[in-house]
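Sample pair:
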Amino acid sequence: MSYQSINADGPAETTCSYGASLLHFRGPQRALNSSYVACLGGEETFGRFVEDPFPTILERRLDRRCLNLGSLFCGVEALTQDAGLLDIVNAADVCVLQMPGLLGQSNRFYRVHPRRNDRFVTPTPDLIALYPEEDFTDIHFVRHLLTRLKARSDARIELVEQELRTGWIERLSTFLDKVRPPVVMLRLEVEGAAATSMPYEPAAVDSQMIEALRPRCAEVTTLGVQVSGVSDELEDMLFGTLQQPMAEHMIGPATHRRIAEALAHAINDVGV
């Protein structure tokens, strides 16, 4: 068991770890000796800057324990490669999986940090050969990398994006085949991110990719949401002065309540 806090001039957010998993999840730590719903995903599941993220609200709505396995900065790589996390998921009654984005996965063009999947570690020889004019030494995040490559405005980016799409489907399909409880896939279509200070998302998950995974899921719940920077929820969030730019890119408490309500209906429909 371990705990840490993420605190930059604002309220502390306690994190914890479970079993053999190397990831840090939203705290406080919960016991694993009774039945639970496993909610795994990234920053929205974690619920940064909100007091009650949607797994907490879902627990009250369903009147059954919901384990928050949201981990900051994790993507496809961390969610599908952590054997300890899979063990926790397979002990659950139901798995809620927040659909990860495309960028946070190692592939034939670049490598990411195994747990902080937003981190660009190194280009591969294939990427260097594809973009011989590019200097990668000042790039530290995958979003920055893809944004810079996209700015070249030529067809080469299509090779990188297709690699990401193919890897996304293969990794998640393999992971879902290993998950024993029924899976409710949560697809959040985040609106308004371009209006914040965060850079443009160069590649996105499309409906065909979702359909490729649908046979492996009991339910797929799609919900359009807005980040707090373009909604009216920023004033209801908990953050310090230096954290406001990050908080503007997160979803607010009312949106978490909407997500929990939608998931409650989906889980009840599964009937587990």
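The first strand starts at residue 3 and ends at 6.
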